[in-house]
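Quick one:
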Amino acid sequence: MSAYMKSHPTREGFFGPYGGAMLPPPLEPHFAAIREAYDRISKSADFINELRYIRKHFQGRPTPVSYLKNLSGQCGGAQIYAKREDLNHTGAHKLNHCMAEGLLARFMGKKKLMAETGAGQHGVALATAAAYFGMDCEIHMGEIDIAKEAPNVTRMKLLGATVVPVGFGGRSLKEAVDSCFQSYLSQADTALFAIGSVVGPHPFPMMVRDFQHVVGVEAREQFLEMTGELPDMVAACVGGGSNAMGIFSGFIDDDVALYGVEPCGTSSKLGEHAATITYGEDGDIHGFRTMVLKDAEGNPAPVHTVASGLDYPGVGPEHAFLHRSGRVTYTGADDKEALAAFYALSRHEGIIPALESAHAVAFAMREAKNHPGKSILINLSGRGDKDIDYVTEIHGFGDGL
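Output:
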């Protein structure tokens, strides 16, 4: 583990001023128990060996790094590479932390895994973990996302999960988190709320980052083997930010420029994007301190992005800290850029990306021409099977792009 990761967060779960655990009193002992259990098993040879076995023989890790030769030629300038988390079992990076959370739940004697989901990939991954470990599974998902991500809803149900539609407020990811927390209050003795990103009360931002660290470790080693040097730039999409922290963690102590790509939606107007670091301010959400998009009353604002998995008015506290410290540069891609990248990667490389990941592809396509002789490594955090019906029904097949 890197020097940076060993020193961040603090024992209380703070990354600078961000993080912590602000919980209702009934949940405090349950999160304390999770922290204690993680402290015990994270350095356990038995846990580490079983997780390695699962990653190799069930998930299919390591996933490769691919040189995107055709896309690089189309864009001109920098050479573009992708860490292929779309090839991880279930089609995204999410299974990396879900299988580990399942192991943690089993160690704690829990019988059920429950979580929120936006794009549905975390829900599918957690339902997969529940099936693997013989546990019940409850997934909360906004009605808007259920309609947009129908294939993933079907997968969750096939895997045995109960999918709870969330119909209040914006009917998307924030409300799914609210709904799941409320349900968890009455089940905390027997269930683990397996939070799906580097968000939530401590220890989840730390745990999920640590479980996703495998992405950065693999990518660094693979890129060195392929090219003999480290990439000049590493980029990943950022909603909550788990895939980004996974790949950033492999390079954070290196002289490598790191870029987080936020969803800029349709405009900079509040409610028409989900670019929290770009437009947000310090605040509290879902039991931790971070940067938040706020409305006129100071409450979490409505958000929009074409990518359901990035549809969140907050961001992981470590990202807020890395922005404040200047170690990571946060920029954005709008819906049109993400859709153009979705079609471009499909047409030129034979890889259909998730709409979330397409934001990172869009960044690489945009920046390549400005950096001739450089290399850009993106985290292709998921595949686009879940998005193809929605994209083609609304936007067609990209003809003319």
